[in-house]
Amino acid sequence: MSLTMDYLQALSKEWTNDFWVAHKDPNGIWSKWLPLSQWSKFTPVNYRQVLPNEVVMESDFDDKTNKLIAEEICKKLRDNNIAYERYFSGNKSHHIHCFFVGLDTAPIQVSAKTKELLVDSLIGSELSSKLDKSLFGPKHLVLIPNENHPKTDVRKMLVDSYHQGSVNPLPEIVKDFISLHKQMVPQVIITPQEKIKCSAMELSIKKRFPDGSGRQNRLAPNFSAFSRTRSDRQQLRNAFYATQVDTKPNCLSCWDSKKSTFSCKQLRNYMYSIGEGSTCDLCMLNKGDKI
């Protein structure tokens, strides 16, 4: 356990300030996802988030096919002088991890597309099409090295590497893509007083959002500001509590007392992090940040 926490702490210091971690038991039951900074060092942990400056490549076919695809990917990466680490834990798939300088600067709205473009440029679109693209999303967990896979009870071990521990430069095509989309991301406009219309807020009273995803700290303050501007305030709040059932009953009142303001950027990033970014896309494209 201490070795795993040492690994996670080192990863946090070297690559990013914080990231999601969790534990999955042999029955496939997940613990609550928490940021590493909030995880007790005495609690088992075996999964971590794929980091913003990290690409993990994995295919999802039969054992033999997955191995052949992994070997072909690794050959392409070596040919392009790309450092990688390839792991296997006995459950069909091979995980190939690569880190890149500057990949984490991509706006979260296009982080998955940035990683997809990066992988296409390194191994070709034909080979890339065989990969599980869900691992390119902004919030996806993978088994931690040297931890046992919950299903196979086989330890995730390093089976191949090239320049292990090295960081890769970004191809120019990916740098240009990030630069272009940084210019396209709307500037933040906080609207604390005006009546707010927001499709993300409307969705939050109809659909339960994932556990451990930041509802308390990112969704609640925005809903507080959103509902304060509405004549049907209490009705909206009752619906919010009924849908987000484990949100503390007094959380909105608490944010009211702090006079929280509505941050479109914060909320939009949250929606993308839980896979609901399409809810914000129409608003962003047609109205910019004026909501």
Strand share of the residues? 5-15%
As a whole number of angstroms, the C-alpha radius of gyration is 21 Å
What series of H and E elements makes up the topology?
HEEEEHEEHHEEHHHHHHH
* Main sheet: strands, sense, barrel: 4 strands, antiparallel
- Class by helix and strand content? alpha+beta
Description:
The protein has 291 residues and is α+β, with helices and mostly antiparallel strands. It has two domains: 2-183, no CATH class; 199-287. Helices cover 41% and strands 11% of the residues. The protein is built from eleven helices and eight strands. It has helices at 2-15, 63-79, 111-123, 125-128, 172-184, 199-204, 215-228, 233-243, 251-257, 264-273, 278-287; strands spanning 20-22, 34-35, 47-49, 54-57, 84-88, 94-99, 141-143, 157-162. It has a four-stranded antiparallel β-sheet, with no helix packed on it. Strands 4-6-5-8 form a four-stranded antiparallel β-sheet, with helices on one face. A hairpin with a 5-residue loop joins strand 5 (84-88) and strand 6. Helix 3 packs antiparallel against helix 5, helix 7 packs antiparallel against helix 8 and helix 7 (215-228) crosses helix 9 (251-257). The radius of gyration is 21 Å and the shape is globular. The termini are far apart. Residues 187-194 and 285-291 have low confidence and may be disordered.
What would a concise description of this structure say?
By secondary structure, this protein is α+β, with helices and mostly antiparallel strands. It has eleven helices and eight strands. The protein has helices spanning 2-15, 63-79, 111-123, 125-128, 172-184, 199-204, 215-228, 233-243, 251-257, 264-273, 278-287, and strands at 20-22, 34-35, 47-49, 54-57, 84-88, 94-99, 141-143, 157-162.
